[in-house]
Amino acid sequence: MTGSSHLIIDEPAAQLGRNLTYGLLDNIGRAIVTGQFEKAVFPTEAELAKQHGVSRSVTREAVKMLTAKGLLSARPRQGTTVQPTSSWNLFDTDVLRWMLERKLSIDLLRQFNELRVAVEPEGAALAATVAGEDDLARIDAGLERMQAAEHGLDDPLEADIAFHVAILRASKNPFYIQLRDVVSTALRTSIRFTNRIKGRSADVAEHAKVRDAIAARDPDAARIAMRRIIGDVLGLIEDRQPAGE
Amino acid sequence: MTGSSHLIIDEPAAQLGRNLTYGLLDNIGRAIVTGQFEKAVFPTEAELAKQHGVSRSVTREAVKMLTAKGLLSARPRQGTTVQPTSSWNLFDTDVLRWMLERKLSIDLLRQFNELRVAVEPEGAALAATVAGEDDLARIDAGLERMQAAEHGLDDPLEADIAFHVAILRASKNPFYIQLRDVVSTALRTSIRFTNRIKGRSADVAEHAKVRDAIAARDPDAARIAMRRIIGDVLGLIEDRQPAGE
DNA sequence: ATAAGTCGATTCATATGATAATTGTGATTG
DNA sequence: CAATCACAATTATCATATGAATCGACTTAT
Fold first, then answer.
1. Can you give the residue range of the structural domain that contains A47?
2. Domain HTH gntR-type: where (chains A, B) (predicted)?
3. How much is the ipTM here?
């Protein structure tokens, strides 16, 4: 890894980390998402193995995992091919992380928040119906962290994530709960942008409204309050990038 | 089902289909989701291979795919273990299909529609903003199929799916588009229930309202109309099962 | 000349046996 | 009793061989 100026990976062994398969998964996954194979044909498994300095078993297992995530498809004689992005599983945290790491386009950030604006208000409404005491406690804890973060006593991003994740969890709906990982992955990876966008102190007051609505078992109020929070973020994003597509 | 009274699978070879790996993936995935390993410890890769009459390579690749979908986790010495359901990727169509096939609980159906009631209205609103001519054409086509189905000239379920999928696609948001597969998989697999629930002729009129709102570029109207459609379904489900959990 | 069929090369799919790496468990020792 | 060490179990990795599927070129028959 010193003077090597090769474009091809070609490192004989491992900066793949302790686990070769998972390291290779990460490398290839990132390469696919970065678009490195959009023009070129995807290598054969033998070439992949040689380029990364691992055995074909490891290669095959990594390829199989990428297949399971919708990024690849393998057939005899035809070879292994990259699937169109429409079949990638965006709700897989690996795929999402690769996409966010590659360039973090404002488009992707907007699309992600368009998802949040649908899911989180409804999740808050559900939470208002079914949340238990422990759920409320977690939501309170998240809110308190946000308040602490206002005075520099906690990390604002992590506090925000804790709050939103607590609400999704309180919905008691597996689909919403699943989105915990998606939301926290996306928020954490896109720190650069979110920092510019967030940081307004009105935030905490608006979050408190959500909490209160859930505690008061008022689904409609919870939905509206949460929608305002994410709508604000979305508005800021769209301001920065007026014309999409 | 016939005379075989073995609990263990133990078939020496393949009713796994042409592709052993994918057949094994399906078998093990279904077994996990069915809860066959909740009490018992998960077999070692050697045992798995022997039980299914395949090589360890095939076993390992199937296990790796299940790992990628969040169902399994493998570590040396500790063995391969089934992950808690909270880490399963429900937005993976395989996982979802296995879950819907296993027993199709009303709970799962309700939770799925709780997701739809969040996503699809917002998707319709987005579509009203960004849909192109081709998108509108697809939505119209879906609506026409529903009208045809009213007179027995088309399959009502497939027509319904086509309509909803067309709208998700028209949103131009990859996250929403991704849910196409989820929605169609779930609707198609849960025919038994949806047949009982749907089939009211008011449906087509309500769907037409969504279409008109999108064509008129009216996001709010589209959101409200779509919300009513899915809210109706949700109401019927909750009627059947008053107390959840 | 066109159509169908044959053959071969390429690539993934599968099998097998051996070795390495990791880590829980229990024995050992201070 | 605690810390350490040795062992064993299990996955991780490697190397090699064989099978199966498919595309393309070539051949052959009509």
1. 20-87
2. 18-85
3. 0.87
